[in-house]
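TA notes, week 10

Several of you asked for a full example with nothing omitted. So below is the full record: structure tokens for the whole chain, then the designed sequence directly under it. When grading your own attempts, check the secondary structure regions first.
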């Protein structure tokens, strides 16, 4: 088999066989195929596309390129959740303890921040002492003992995806539905869950900017799940507005705790609780209405908050943060972002808000950047709210005083004020069932 012929075949619009896909991934990971040939095939795929079978085969082969975690020793159905990323998206840290408190095991491997989007692992590491670097054995043992564990992805989980993504990133071949879907789902398959709930974001703060593109991606990933034997559903949610009021690591953990105390922002509760209910439904413990009732009970009874405290303590963190937010790292500087004219917030350029938080130190400019866990933005107002001249729209926090003016200039461009009221969109825009059927 020759790489030249595989490139030529896809360039001319023909579908690749499983053997050809396997040859490409295996030999590229072995460094037997040079980057220039791999890039040529990626561009051919980008332009010509992949069908449903090819996409499923690519996903499976990438999942098999490294370690696959075996969760079979954990009793019960294991349901994983994945978000395509957003600003203020802290739903994992709310739904995971809720689901675990309902008796469903949660074995969650999460990632770090990427670009303007925050990462679950970075947020957890803002809790003093919290350890996200667990061995597979520790990870599984934690789930067996307390029903929940959240850890960073192992270094050898779907390594083909890591290598391919680095090449896609520099060859303008990232934004292809089959390549995006296989990238996400290969890691989900390798993580070992029995069933998968996908939160596909859409809007200015999401990777997919339009509803149509988000639905296409969601359907493609659901079909991959079906074709690889993993029951998968998707929920398309709005990311034209930050989720909750907090953007930044420790700020978001404090908001998570408030939400588990039934005091959090309504939009964050709506999305987190719905995703938790969908996870319970996939686990087979009841219909969606019954599962929504279980979610509400887990929060109102305090069981979900207790489970979060148990998670923190079990992974070396200081669980006293549950009742004392001063135990988090504290910023040296804060500044109010003041509204210059009266009106209504018509729109928030959510990706730019994420960048402003990154500038303050809450994210990474490069892989080597050190995160300031206390940095971020706490909003007082969001889309649709009335604001007066001189009123504080948000408070900026950082340990880098020199970043404040830059962050403020970004927010001035991101927060659009209008004289007329603006109605907020629904938070949950669509549901795609395990057969790929869409319900709005």
């Amino acid at each position: 088999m020759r790489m030249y012929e595989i490139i030529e075949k896809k360039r001319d619009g023909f579908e690749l066989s499983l053997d050809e896909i396997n040859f490409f991934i295996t030999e590229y990971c072995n460094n037997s195929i040079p980057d220039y040939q791999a890039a040529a095939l990626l561009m051919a795929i980008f332009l010509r596309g992949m069908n449903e079978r090819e996409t499923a085969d690519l996903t499976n082969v990438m999942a098999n390129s490294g370690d696959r975690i075996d969760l079979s020793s954990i009793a019960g159905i294991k349901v994983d959740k994945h978000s395509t990323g957003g600003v203020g998206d802290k739903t994992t840290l709310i739904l995971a303890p809720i689901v675990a408190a309902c008796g469903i095991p949660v074995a969650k491997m999460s990632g770090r921040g990427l670009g303007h989007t925050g990462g679950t692992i970075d947020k957890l590491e803002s809790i003093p002492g919290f350890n996200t670097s667990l061995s597979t054995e520790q990870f599984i043992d934690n789930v067996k003992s307390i029903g929940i564990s959240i850890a960073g992805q192992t270094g050898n989980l779907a390594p083909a995806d890591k290598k391919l993504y680095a090449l896609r990133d520099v060859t303008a071949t990232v934004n292809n539905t089959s390549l995006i879907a296989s990238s996400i789902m290969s890691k989900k398959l390798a993580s070992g869950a029995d069933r998968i709930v996908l939160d596909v974001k859409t809007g200015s703060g999401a990777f997919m900017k339009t509803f149509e593109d988000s639905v296409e991606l969601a359907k493609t990933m659901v079909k991959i799940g079906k074709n690889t034997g993993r029951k998968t559903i998707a929920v398309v949610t709005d990311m034209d507005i930050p989720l909750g009021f907090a953007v930044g690591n420790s700020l978001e953990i404090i908001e998570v705790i408030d939400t588990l105390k039934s005091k959090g922002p309504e939009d964050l509760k709506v999305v987190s609780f719905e995703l938790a209910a969908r996870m319970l439904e996939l686990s087979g413990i009841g219909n969606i209405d019954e599962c929504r009732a279980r979610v509400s009970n887990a929060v109102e009874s305090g069981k979900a908050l207790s489970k979060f405290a148990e998670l923190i303590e079990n992974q070396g963190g200081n669980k006293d943060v549950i009742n004392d937010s001063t135990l988090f790292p504290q910023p040296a500087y804060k500044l109010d972002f003041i509204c210059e004219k009266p009106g209504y917030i018509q729109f928030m350029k959510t990706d730019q808000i994420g960048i402003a938080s990154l500038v303050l130190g809450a994210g990474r400019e490069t892989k080597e950047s050190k995160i300031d866990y206390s940095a971020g933005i706490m909003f007082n107002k969001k889309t649709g709210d009335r604001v007066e001249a001189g009123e504080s729209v948000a408070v900026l926090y950082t340990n880098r005083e020199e970043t404040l003016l830059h962050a403020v200039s970004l927010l001035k461009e991101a927060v659009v004020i209008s004289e007329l009221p603006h109605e907020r969109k629904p938070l949950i825009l669509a549901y795609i069932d395990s057969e790929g059927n869409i319900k709005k």
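The chain has three domains: 3-49, 79-323+428-439, 329-418. Use that as a sanity check on your answer.
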